[in-house]
Write a structure and sequence with these properties.
Blueprint: H1 21-28, H2 31-41, H3 50-54, H4 79-93, H5 102-106, H6 114-128
Bound molecules: iron/sulfur cluster (SF4) (3 copies).
Length: 155
């Protein structure tokens, strides 16, 4: 929809496709099944951070994984640290991820990391009617404060 430079020809929008078929399968799992699914998904992750480095949203001067004061998580491929990296990165992308697919394309271990971000992308669409990358006129919903936002957390 929005680009600085268009390489090649525009391709037509895909129609009549179920964008969230895989997400619905995840939603149908109970909490334990879903937890195991995601832990298995990232079991082969080598923490190279290529998925983060290629992501257009990951431009923080110092990523939380590189912080040492405080150190948010360990540097090894310990399963808990690895899972924490993926979970937190996904939440950092919530409401901003355009599902461009770059993170998956670049992964040397062929890990389907979009499984994390697509669920959040679907939630943001359903809860806030917002789709990242479609307009420059509105800010991502998790980036704005509205005094009349529903929910007790505001108070
Ligand atoms: S994972 Fe989070 S902290 Fe790290 S670069 Fe991306 S948005 Fe920034
Ligand atoms: S699909 Fe989302 S998380 Fe992955 S590189 Fe694109 S914008 Fe980043
Ligand atoms: S690119 Fe793949 S192997 Fe590297 S940190 Fe991301 S998920 Fe792990």
């Amino acid at each position: 929809m929005i680009y600085d430079e268009l390489l090649g020809e525009r391709v037509p929008e895909q129609e009549r496709m179920d964008r969230y078929e895989d997400v619905r399968k995840l939603e149908a799992m109970d909490a334990d099944e879903r937890s195991k699914y995601f832990q298995d998904l990232v079991a082969s992750c080598i923490r190279c951070y290529a998925c983060r480095d290629v992501c257009p949203l990951c431009y923080c001067p110092t990523c939380f994984v590189d912080e040492s004061r405080p150190q948010w998580l360990g540097k090894s491929i310990d399963p808990t640290d690895t899972f924490t990296f993926h979970l937190l990165r996904a939440f950092h992308c919530a409401g901003r991820c355009t599902d461009c697919g770059a993170c998956e394309r670049v992964c040397p271990m062929d890990i389907k990391v979009r499984q994390f971000t697509k669920k959040l992308e679907k939630d943001v669409l359903e809860l806030y009617d917002h789709e990242a990358g479609m307009t420059t006129e509105t800010r991502p919903p998790l980036d704005v404060y509205q005094p009349d936002d529903p929910g007790d957390f505001i108070e």
